[in-house]
Amino acid sequence: MNAIEASAIELYNLQESQPQGLSMDGMVHLVNNIIQYQHKMATEAHENIFDDMDDGVYNQQVSDEDNSVYESAKRCLAMFCRSWSLTSVSNHEKYPTSGDSSFSGSANLCSNSTVKAIVACAQTLAKVSPLQGLDFMISCLLRRWPSRCTSRQLLFLRLISVLLVQLASANFYMDRFAQAVCDAFQRIRQCILSPHILVAREACSLCDDVHLQHLFLLRDKCLLDMVSTALHDNAKFHWNKQIQSLSDDKFDAMLDLL
After folding, report:
1. Which of 13, 47, 150, 229 is the 20 to 30 Å CA partner of 7?
2. Average pLDDT score, the chain
3. Domain extent listing, the chain
4. Which of 115, 96, 105 is nearest to 153 (CA)?
5. Which InterPro entries match (predicted)?
6. 168 neighbors 130 (Cβ within 8 angstroms)
7. Residues of the chain with pLDDT > 70: what percent?
């Protein structure tokens, strides 16, 4: 893990020119496999202890070694997220630029192998260690939003939606989770209102996520009002007609949830 972390830092420091011989895809997959292996070994160790106990009562605890691996994996994942991008664009994104033109063809990140690897790794981390997954979402994604890189904003939006669902599904109490959910939907709201077409479109598409609807929007009227108000404002005031129409359609769908 130390070697991977050093390589991740190298990728972050040399974002514009990836060092020869370093493959982010391969490293992300390796981190994912290490997390899974560590969790498997810990689970087997706990099961062996459980089998040896006469009373059949044992509470599985995350060891210091497990925490060390998950913490290192979280740092690596943060470096991968912050060094990955398809192209950077200006913060003044109201009107298309050459950067936007070259990026628009790859706006759908579903087919990007690195994005899929990063999302899968983040989901694995949140599954085996919800506390580390929550800290990753708060410290890497929400507090350090990549306002000047469109492709990274789309990646972060995708990660936030996946982590919200994964963390909400974990049977584990986390005292920071409620505030993180509020902050996450505030960020989604800001992205819905983004002047950049791709960011606004990606954020609007999250309104169709059935898991987000049932786990959050239907259970918290404040979150539902936050999203529906942003969609309503977009339908009236966004500079792009396509986003206006898309927001109007999503707002009509939100009315069924109110």
Report:
1. 150
2. 85
3. 1-9+68-84+108-174, 175-258
4. 115
5. ARM-like, ARM-type_fold, PP2A_B56
6. no
7. 83
- Global pTM reads 0.87
Q: Are 118 and 159 in contact (CB under 8 A)?
A: yes
The Cα–Cα gap between 134 and 31 comes to: 18
Q: Write down the H helix ranges in 14-84.
A: 24-52, 64-83
Percent of the chain with pLDDT over 90: 63
φ and ψ at residue 59, rounded to 5 degrees: -100, 115
* Cα 238 from Cα 204, distance rounded (Å): 13
* Residue 191 in this model has a pLDDT that exceeds 70: yes
Q: Tokens in use for 73?
A: 């994996």
Distance CA 131, CA 227 (A): 26
Give the range among 10-19, 168-177, 208-217, 227-236 with minimum mean pLDDT: 10-19
| Structural tokens at position 171 | 């049977």
Tell me the C-alpha distance between 191 and 157, whole Å.
9
Nearest to 129 by CA among 47, 217, 38, 246: 38
